[in-house]
Write a structure and sequence with these properties.
Layout lengths: L2 H15 L1 H8 L1 E4 L4 E4 L4 H12 L13 H15 L4 E6 L2 H17 L9 E5 L2 E4 L4 E6 L12 E4 L8 H5 L1
Parallel strand pairs: 3-6, 3-7
Antiparallel strand pairs: 1-2, 4-5, 5-6
Helix pairs in contact: 1-2, 3-4, 4-5
Length: 172
């Protein structure tokens, strides 16, 4: 193993073990002030939120707009897809466009990380679904009483839940 391969393996391990290291080192996000995609540096409240995702099974966030929590949640989903095993993630929004927009944000994270962090293969990739060779996938759907029914999910993301009809039914 040469020094570059060793470095990449060490970086992969650091990222797999530490979501905050991954986000702050390899995350990129759209900066509303500069109107460009730039390296991400998490604010304290964003880091706290991500750690709570890892430490607690259920998280409900009441927040104001433009705090970057959807972006940081997209980064969290990307991390689960890259370093997880058999992660089955469903993204539900009040309409299909909102769910697709959220998955697009996840894919932005995925598209901008170095190749050595990616699983061996992207098995499927379209606007509503992405799946990797490590068995992990994320799917975007509009809210309905049938959203997620019959699926064994490891993570459910409900974006803009105040505007989702039947949110309790989907949650259950």
């Amino acid at each position: 193993m040469n020094s570059e391969q060793l470095y990449q393996m060490q970086e992969w391990m650091k990222c797999a073990k530490d979501i905050l290291y991954f986000l702050n080192t390899y995350g990129n996000a759209f900066n509303i002030k500069t109107q460009q995609i730039e390296p991400l540096k998490c604010f304290d409240y964003q880091e706290k939120t991500v750690l709570e995702y890892e430490n607690y099974k259920n998280n409900i966030i009441l927040k104001s707009r433009q705090m970057g929590l959807s972006v940081i949640t997209s980064g969290y989903v990307a991390w689960k897809l890259l370093f997880g095993v058999d992660e089955r993630i469903l993204i539900v929004a009040n309409d299909g466009a909102g769910a697709i927009r959220f998955l697009k944000s996840v894919k932005q994270f995925l598209d901008l990380v170095p190749k050595f962090l990616l699983p061996e293969k992207r098995i499927k990739d379209n606007e509503k679904y992405v799946e990797f060779s490590n068995g992990c996938f994320a799917k975007a759907v509009a809210s309905s009483e049938q959203a997620g029914r019959g699926e064994s999910l490891t993570l459910l993301i409900m974006d803009e839940v105040a505007f989702i009809d039947n949110a309790e039914t989907i949650w259950m």
